[in-house]
Fold this sequence. Notes:
Elements: H1 3-9, H2 11-14, H3 17-26, H4 31-53, H5 58-64, H6 66-90, H7 96-121, H8 129-138, H9 144-151, H10 153-167, H11 169-172, H12 175-198, E1 204-214, E2 218-225, E3 237-242, E4 253-256, E5 264-270, E6 287-294, H13 297-303, E7 310-315, H14 319-329, E8 335-341, H15 350-359, E9 364-370, H16 375-381, H17 384-389, E10 391-396, H18 398-410, E11 418-422
Helix pairs in contact: 3-4, 3-12, 4-6, 4-10, 4-12, 5-6, 6-7, 7-9, 7-10
Amino acid sequence: MTLRKLTFWSAAIVFPLPLxxxxxxxxxxxxxxxxxxxxxxxxxxxxxxxIVLSVRSAWLHRFVGLPSIYGLHGMxxxxxxxxxxxxxxxxxxxxxxxxDLGDWGFYVALAVLCFSVFFMxxxxxxxxxxxxxxxxxxxxxxxxxxxxxxHRLNLVVVAMIWLHAHLLVRVNQYFSFMVxxxxxxxxxxxVYVWKKWIAPETYVAGAxxxxxxxxxxxxxxxxxLDSKAENIQPGDFFFLSFEGAASVGREWHPFSVTDDxxxxxxxxxxxxxxxxxxxxxxxxxxxxxxEGPFGRxxxxxxxxxxxxxxxxxxxxxxxxPLLSLAAAHHKTREIHLLWIVRTPEDAYYRDxxxxxxxxxxxxxxxxxxxxxxxxxxxxxTVSAEQLAKSAFFVxxxxxxxxxxxxxxxxxxxxxxxxxxxxLTM
Length: 425
Ligand SMILES: Cc1cc2nc3c(=O)[nH]c(=O)nc-3n(C[C@H](O)[C@H](O)[C@H](O)COP(=O)(O)OP(=O)(O)OC[C@H]3O[C@@H](n4cnc5c(N)ncnc54)[C@H](O)[C@@H]3O)c2cc1C
């Protein structure tokens, strides 16, 4: 684990401390009871920290990356329910309303946790084909947007626990503690409200300049930005909201930039779900808001040796951020781009890739494969030298990324040289 990640994860330990130390210094509850109250405070502050992490802060993202942020967000959700369970089992209160609020807060948090682990985390589903199929079946009714609303019930849980604490004589009699307790809550909700309702007005915006079909189920959508986005790096992605296209809806979805243009950004979008299938209805001139950019591929490349070859493995639309890396580096780096597609018609970027390859002066090698790469295909395509020296960038649907990651590990590539982006969150 890198020092950055360690620093980031240590926030989970540091964040509850001021509240716990303040309570410890003012309260006179018996020792064992105090300990279980601490656990309640830890659960509460972890839920608050989860809310703060859920807003996808751009600077935090550049520091550790979105997967780490969502990783800690999810882990805090699990640990908070564990701490809340012990708090609920072993502490007591004379107020019936406080007990009911605590109990119901716990049940709702537990139910939302189980739901989110299955529908939103990929922790189970990405590792089992059976669960993956069950999820796909259920997603006909439980769309991602519905999952998001169910997940937001955690805000109601926090409100219930806030009230629960305010009703408990064992805590509400300590003024300085309650002020700090309310400041924590206000800060977390303040960050959330700012991010949801105020920050979007400051995001980059633009208008659609083209929307073309590529093959049977993919679209290439370009957006001319109102002003050049100097901070975009190759391989980055944005969350997009098509504000002007009534038929599409304004929900936010993440898509990767496909080339290295900072004024007109192009996205390659596979149409497989409710939202992406409606994208044919987006018209030239429709307004788009873009939250971001996010992404760490370019900073990883910049941090590596100039001589390190890059092996870019893209599955389907997962080629998008890799094409953007290829656009930026084909004249200076040794690159092997492997694009895995379902049918020959899905290889809609052959011409663009050929252009990069021709301009690369022999530095860029390309393999387009119909169907997944088995071990023997892999070893006959990627040279022993590339396996030994390269940095690998793997992008695609979660199960495919995990399968490729396992294959690379079995072929002797160290985890440190494998960087991946999964197309679901
Ligand atoms: C970092 C990142 C980069 C991506 N880049 C691309 C790209 O360049 N091209 C491309 O075709 N796809 C990309 N995706 C995937 C794309 O965001 C989803 O396919 C799309 O949001 C699915 O929406 P849907 O409603 O059509 O499908 P659904 O069938 O509703 O969803 C399919 C799956 O996509 C995920 N998903 C759905 N909505 C969202 C959302 N709002 N936010 C996050 N995940 C969601 C869920 O895990 C869901 O299981 C990327 C995803 C991520 C996380």
